[in-house]
């Protein structure tokens, strides 16, 4: 049965009657329509995290960044760090996500004093499922931020490769700050 589910996911047919996800995650989409919303991924704190576990509890700010330790990613991660209290005042949880290993993300988080977990999407499964486009002719992983409300609905989607710090401002606006 598990093998059959894996095959159906690869062929864009979701298991157990779920509707196959749209090509790109957009404002208004329900996360439950994306099977990988339920995927368990490793954090920089070596914990298992499933985004779906926050449904009904907290808004989720999820920012995809290309590579830990690079200048733009460091600016973005540090701006999220500096505004972290504003996010928590709204009850939101913040996650950064990249294809870096949990160990690379842990080192980056420690070096930059990040108080939120960084998630490892080493196979870029979430990046592909959510339809995040690469930049610079496919040479650079896309920089994308989503805000997901408590009900699991996407209320903000923002993409700007070179305006890394703008992602934080847009996420704060989406949360009403």
* H and E string: HEEEHHEHEHEEH
Strand order of the largest sheet: 2-1-5-4-3-6-7
The number of helical runs is: 6
Shape call: globular
Helix percent reads: 25-40%
Q: How many beta-strand elements? A: 7
* Unreliable residue runs: 1-21
Q: Radius of gyration, rounded?
A: 15 Å
Strand content: 15-25%
Distance between the termini: 46 Å
Structural class: alpha/beta
In this structure, how is the largest beta sheet organized? 7 strands, mixed
Mean pLDDT: 82
In short:
This protein has helices at 2-10, 71-82, 84-89, 102-112, 125-129, 166-174; strands spanning 41-43, 48-49, 60-64, 93-98, 118-120, 144-148, 154-159. By secondary structure, the chain is an alpha/beta fold. It has a seven-stranded mixed β-sheet.
Q: In words, what does this structure look like?
A:
The protein has 177 residues and is α/β, with parallel strands linked by helices. It contains 6 helices and 7 strands. It has helices spanning 2-10, 71-82, 84-89, 102-112, 125-129, 166-174; strands at residues 41-43, 48-49, 60-64, 93-98, 118-120, 144-148, 154-159. It has a 7-stranded mixed sheet with strand order 2-1-5-4-3-6-7. A hairpin with a 5-residue loop joins β6 and β7 (154-159). The longest helix has 12 residues, at 71-82. The N and C termini lie far apart (46 Å). Mean pLDDT is 82; it is low at 1-21.
Chain-wise SSE layout:
Layout: H1 2-10, E1 41-43, E2 48-49, E3 60-64, H2 71-82, H3 84-89, E4 93-98, H4 102-112, E5 118-120, H5 125-129, E6 144-148, E7 154-159, H6 166-174
Parallel strand pairs: 3-4, 4-5
Antiparallel strand pairs: 1-2, 1-5, 3-6, 6-7
């Amino acid at each position: 049965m598990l093998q059959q589910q894996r095959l159906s996911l690869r062929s864009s047919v979701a298991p157990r009657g779920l509707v196959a996800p749209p090509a790109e995650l957009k404002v208004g989409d329900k996360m439950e329509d994306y099977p990988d919303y339920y995927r368990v991924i490793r954090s920089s704190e070596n914990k298992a995290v499933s985004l779906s576990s926050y449904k009904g509890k907290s808004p989720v700010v999820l920012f995809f960044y290309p590579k830990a330790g690079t200048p733009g990613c460091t600016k973005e991660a540090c701006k999220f760090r500096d505004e972290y209290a504003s996010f928590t005042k709204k009850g939101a949880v913040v996650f950064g996500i990249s294809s870096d290993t949990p160990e690379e993300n842990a080192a980056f988080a420690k070096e930059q004093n990040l108080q939120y977990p960084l998630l490892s999407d080493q196979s870029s499964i979430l990046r592909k499922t959510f339809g995040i486009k690469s930049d610079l002719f496919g040479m650079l992983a896309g920089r994308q931020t989503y805000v997901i409300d408590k009900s699991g609905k996407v209320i903000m989607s923002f993409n700007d490769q070179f305006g890394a710090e703008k992602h934080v401002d847009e996420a704060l606006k989406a949360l009403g700050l």
